[in-house]
Specification:
heterodimer; A: alpha+beta; Cytochrome Bc1 Complex, Chain A, domain 1; 6-stranded mixed β-sheet; 5-stranded mixed β-sheet; 15 helices; 22% strand; globular; B: 423 residues; alpha+beta; 2 domains; 7-stranded mixed β-sheet; 16 helices
Amino acid sequence: MKEIDLKYAKLYLIKTQKFRSLNIKVLLKDEIKKEDITKRNFLVDYLILTTKKYKTRQELALKTQELYSLYLSGYNTRIGNYLITKFNMSMLDTKYTEPSMLKESISLLSEVIFNPNQKNNQFDSKTFKIVKKGIQTEIDTIKENPKIYANIRMLENMDSNKPYSYRGFGYQEDLDQINEKNLYEYYKNFIKTASVDIFVIGDFDEKELVSVIKEKLNFKTIKKEKRNLYLNHNYLPKKIKVVREKENITQSKLSIGCKIANLTEFERKYVINLYSMILGGGFNSRFLQIIREKYSLAYYINSSVLKADNLLLIQSGISVNNFDKVLKCIKKIIKDINNGKVTFEELEMVKSEYLSVLDEIYDNIDSILENYIATVLLDLDDLKIRKEMIKKVTIQDIINISKKVYMDTVYLLEGDISEES
Amino acid sequence: MKKVNFNNLDQDVYSFTLDNGLGVYLIPYQDKNNYYAVLGTKYGSNDILFFKDGKKITSPYGTAHFLEHKMFEQEDGSDPMKIFSKNGASSNASTSFSNTRYYIWGATNLYDNLNLLIDLVYSPYFTDDNVAKEKGIIKEEILMYEDNPEWAMDDNIRKNLFYKLPVKEKIAGTISSIEKITKEDLYNAYNTFYTPSNMYLVIGGNINPNEIEKFLKNNQKLNSLKKQEEVKKIIYEEPNDVKEEFKKIYKNVKVPKIQFAIKINKDNLKNFDDLKINMYLGIILTNLFGNTSDFKEEVLYNNISTGFYEEKCSYSNFITLNIVGESDKADIFVEKIKQRFANIRISKEEFERIKRVWIASEIRMIDNVEITVDNIYSDLIQYNKLYDNRIDIIKNLDIKELKKFIKCLDLSNQTLVMVLPKQ
C-alpha cells in the first residue's frame, strides 16, 4: 500500500491486477456525538439518493447503469469514539469498458459528495420526505430483529453514556428536529470539518488516478487534532447486572456484555481474538461444543470482540426456561479458562482458524480494502506480521487475558414459547 | 477432462464424470490463496416422497435438513470439524428446497480436507441417540426464525401458493414433524439421493485440475461407490392456480408488510428453455419494479411504500415472481403492483440497458471464487448443465422473442400475504 499526503486528505493506493474492478472508499470521520447520529444518517441517505445534476433517485440510478453498472453506496458506521461516513464506489476495470470511465465514474462520486440537491440553502423537500420516512421506519421497526434489539438493550443497560450504547439508526427526538434547512447547514459544516481518508484498489495508472482524485475529490478540510479512537471503561463491574425484559416473541434472546481492561498491545492485537474464538468463535468453540452439542440448549451461541470498544459480546437464542442453565454453563466455561483449563490442541486449532481467515483476505477486492482501512484506523500490523505474531500466542497468554475480561451485563429479551405457529 | 473458457474472460473450467457417476467441475484461479469446494446432492426439502427399491416412501417434513445436520456424525465419535480446523479449513452445509450441499474452504491441505469431506458425505452414521440429540438443536433453529416477519411472510406465501408441492412447508420442517424423524428415515433418504450420479462436486480457487483429477480417480471411497440408476423423482400434480389468494398474519411489526406472488407453471412455456424462461422473467421483473423503474419512483415519491424489492423463486417446475415490501397504505400498494403486472411494456432501450448491467455483473462475479463456484453448482442443480457462455447468451437475448414470451405468460395466479401489527 502506498500512502500519499494530499494535505486535505490521506490517499492510500493499492495497485493490483488480481481483479476486474476498481474500488474507491472515501471515509469522513469525526468524533461521535449522540445527537449527530440521526442527522448524519439522514444526510448520507439523502446524498446518495439525489444530486444537483441528477435530481431524482431514478435519474441517478440510470446514470450509474450508463457507467457500466457503477456501484455507489454510502453509510455510517461507528468505531470506538468515531462516527465514520463511508462512500463506496466500485467500477469495472476500464479494459472491459472505455478509458474515459475512470474519470466519469469518479466524477459521479464527486457529484454525490460535493454537489447535493439544494436550492436557496435548503435540501429538496420531495427527496427529504422519502429519506425521512425511511429513517422513521428504521426507528419504528427496531424490535423486528430481536437479536439486534437485545444487543442494543444490553449495551444501554451496561452504560448509556458510552458511545457503544448509541443506537446506530438514530433517535426519534433528533429526527423530529431535522428539516431541509438545518440539514443543509449541517452538511456544509460536516464536509469541511471531518477528516478524510481515501482508499483505492485496482489496476490503475497512478499518475492519472491521483490527478483525477485531486481534481474531483478535493475536500476543503480544516485539519483537526487526532483523537483517540479507543474507548476505555470508567469502572469495572463489582457484580454482574442481570436485566430481563419481556417482549412478544417466541425465542428468547440472550445478550451478554463483558468489559475488557488493561490489555497490553500484544494482547489487544492478538490474544483477545484467539480468546474469543476459543469461547465462541465457531463450531469447535467451547460454547457450541458444550451448550449446543452436549446439552442441545441452543442452535447458535457465539462470542465476538468489539476491539475499539474494549468489549466482548456473547449472544444466543434460547428457550426462556433454559436461561439459568445456559448462563451457568457460560460462566463455568469462562471460569474453566480462568483456572487454566486450556489445551494446546484447542489453541492450535483457533490459531489455524484465524490464520485461514487472514489468508482469505487476499482473495477478495473488498476485504483487502477493508483490511487496510482497519489497519489504518485501529493501528494494526501488516498482515504478514500479524500471521507471525498470532503463532506466538501461548496458553498462558490466554489464561492471563481471561482475567482481564469482566462479565458486566446479562440481558435476556424474554419471549414465551409457543409450540407451532 | 474437458476444458472450456468461461465467458471468454481468461478463466478456464475443467469438467469430467467419474465412473461412479459423480460430475466434477474445477475452476483454477491464477492468483488466489484459497480453495472452495462444494459437494452437493439434488435432494432438498421438496423430496419428501420418493421411490426406493420400487417402493414409495413418505418421509416427514424436514428430513433433508435433519440429514444434513447429522451427516458429519462419525462412528468413532471423532469430530471432523476439529480436523478441518487443524488443517486450516472451515466447513459448513446448507439445505434448500431442491438440494443439500456441504462445503469447505481454506488455504492449506486441500487434499486432506477434500478427502475428509468425501469420507464424511459417503459414510453415514445415524443412531437413535444421535438423532434424538439433534431434535433440541433443530427446534431452536426453527424457533429462531419465528419472530422474523419476512420469514413468516415467505412461509405463508408458499402455503398460499401450493396445494401439493412439499415446499409449502419450511425447509427445516415443523416442531412436530421433526419429532417424528427416525434414523430409518435418514437412511432411506440417504441411500436414495446420496448416490454419486445424483451429485456434483465443484472446486474453485488455488487448485491444480490435473492433480485433482488424479486424486479423485484414485480416491478409495469414491472408487468403492457404484454407479446407480437415475433417481426417479415423484411428480406432484400441482395445479396452476393458487391454493389461497390472501392471508393476514399478525406479528411484532409497526409498519405493515406485504408479499405479493405470482405462480407460473413452466410446463406452460414449452417453447422456451429453462434458462431463457429465467432470464426473460428476470428482465420483466427488473423492468417493472427494479431500481430504475417508473414504478419504484412513483411509489417512493408518493409515499405509498417505504421500500420493497422484487424476487424470482424456483420451486420444482414452478417459478414465482414476488414483490416484498413495507407499506402503511398496503391496499393501494398492492393495487399498483397488480396494475403494473397487467401492463408490461419494455422499450428497446430499457431492454439493452438491463442486458448491459447483467453483463457487467457477470464480469465482476468471476473475481469471486465462492460466488463463481456457487453459481456453477446452482446451474448444475437447476439445469443439469453448465452455461459457460452466459455473456453471449445475454448479448443474444432478443426483444422480439421477449415479446413472444410475454404473450405466452399467464400472470393471473396471484396471492398475497400481509403482516399486520399484533394488537
